[in-house]
Amino acid sequence: MTVPSTDLRPYIGLRYFEERDAHLFYGRDEHTADLLAKLAGNRFVAVMGSSGCGKSSLVRAGLLPELRSGMIPNAGPTWNVVEFKPGTRPLGALSDAIQTELGVPHAHELVQEGPLGIARAVASANLPPGTNILVIADQFEEVFRFQREESNQGRGAEALEQCRALVRRLLDAATQSEWPIYVLLVMRSDYLGECSQFPELPERMSESLYLVPRLRRDQLEEAITAPVGGAVELSVVQRLLSEVGSDPDQLPRLQHLLGRMWEQAKGGWVTMDHYTEVGGWDNGLQKHLEEIYDHLTDSQKLVCQRVFQQLSELDKGRAVRRRAAIEDVTQVCGPETGTVVGKFRDRGFLLPQLHPVDITHECVLRAWTRCRDWVTEEEKARAFYRELVVRKDRPGRLHGSDLREVSRQRQAGRFTEQWALRYGTRDDLKGVEHYVNSSRRVRQAAQFGMGALALILIFLGAYTVWSSRQQELRARARMLAAYAAMSLSEDPALALYLGVRAAQTAQPLLPGLESFLADTLRKGHSFAALRGHADAVVGVAWSPDGKSLASASADHTIRLWDPATGQTIRTLTGHEGSVSSVAWSPSGNTLASASEDGTIRLWDPATGQTIRTLTGHEGS
């Protein structure tokens, strides 16, 4: 018996029509009759067509009501429908559906027993006489995705065997004559060639294939106007008929656009103003999705991207849906996954049930520009990861660009265990992590070695320049000292000047130069008298670089002199008694003085300021 619809909207949006929506299912009477005739003559029928052509809707809202009306001769109106999608456990999904729909508690064991497992399960269900069983394997193309993902986990052979067992049970259920079991295999037509891997399936499909036709113009017009009793402006109808064209997603997109216009019309006539307001054929779906996305927080937008990447993939270059358990999606996408999923589910873009999570129709992946970019980005990440899985077992290490790409992918939330298990095994991930880490260590060591080598080369270069300069200065100082020695007898003042210049030119002082200058001064030779002290000078000391002279005086002061000009550089005051001696530190940065006031003072020659006063002596 048909379940009455609880949805008061005349257009269902992106989801497929359910049996309860039969009163809204228009334009398919001919197709329904054709499929019914095909099933009446063949208990196994493969229903095929492109994505968006209405395969699932035709079966549920077209065929099922006809079956329950007793339209197959000798079958009667009593039908139990066992519907499943292969997903990630094809045989398990079939067993679950049998257990739920037929009330068979041991369905799993019975289905596993052998090719006639479905018939055995039906036999144990204690169904009333005259009951027919219709098994619907919807989205059968999921078996090929299952095999691909299991192959990534190293279980490809086991996956193929399970899928073959499923096909064998479906074919044998339709072949046996003890129980009236009918089988519908619903699948996208672009997977037809891959069915050759299952024995007998291609032959059975060639006998009973139903290829779902596209709607003619008159059928499309009926689908547009009939659900609302014709309350659609003629210009809108004509516009839609001209724009639908050969769009592979025409039916779900048409239902979505009509539903949006009906909401704007608030139950009245649908006009061109409503068509324009919702974005029209080209932008209606995109606009609706962007409205939801724009109301997300920044963190939810990132989760949204990851959710749709987890629920989609590229298959033969085409973006397709990928159902996933909410727990798995949450592990990859974060704690706000439930909130984001709820927002898109409430607006009809994700299927109503929470487990598993699934996109309502693949046209979302093709019409939403942002989502297309996300799918492409995820495919590139998958390809890069799989490349690393292969490269990890080969000689060589990752280079800088590859290591940077790994870091970028990790920042995007990838290369985690939850993410990587979609594309390989845990051992694959461990191998990739070891490969990346060892490559990074090798690179860091190489960078450190190159940096150290560069520093050594810089140091050696600087040292070479400095050493060459020092040799040049010492050569010049030796020349000045030689001229000073030759000038001593004839011009002592010149000799003293040249000696001082030699001391100023090169450090440390040339051997013998200090004694030469001292002897010249002791012998009375002078070319300038340094005057300024108010009392006797009791001690002098040359600075280490020979550019300054310090003098200690009984007038309580120290004076710093420029020997070349004879001018006082600065006067150091602070002692309260006669200054008896002065001495320079080896660096020339500090001057020490001793005084009869019982103290020693340390001075900064550059400023003339006292650095420290040393006290403790009790005598002068």
Kindly describe this structure.
- The N and C termini lie far apart (126 Å).
- Helix 21 packs antiparallel against helix 22 (492-505).
- Mean pLDDT is 89; it is low at 1-7.
- The protein is α/β, with parallel strands linked by helices and 620 residues long.
- The chain is built from 23 helices and 15 strands.
- The strands form four sheets. Strands 2-3-4-1-5 form a five-stranded parallel sheet.
The radius of gyration over CA amounts to 48 Å
Count of DSSP H/I helices:
23
User: Which structural category do the helix and sheet elements fall into?
Assistant: alpha/beta
Distance between the termini: 126 Å
Q: Helix content range of the residues, please?
A: 40-55%
- The pLDDT mean sits at 89
State the total count of DSSP E strands: 15
Q: How does the major sheet shape up? A: 5 strands, parallel
Strand residue content:
5-15%
So what's the overall shape?
elongated
Strand numbers in spatial order across the main sheet: 2-3-4-1-5
Q: Identify the quaternary structure here.
A: single chain
| Low-pLDDT segments | 1-7
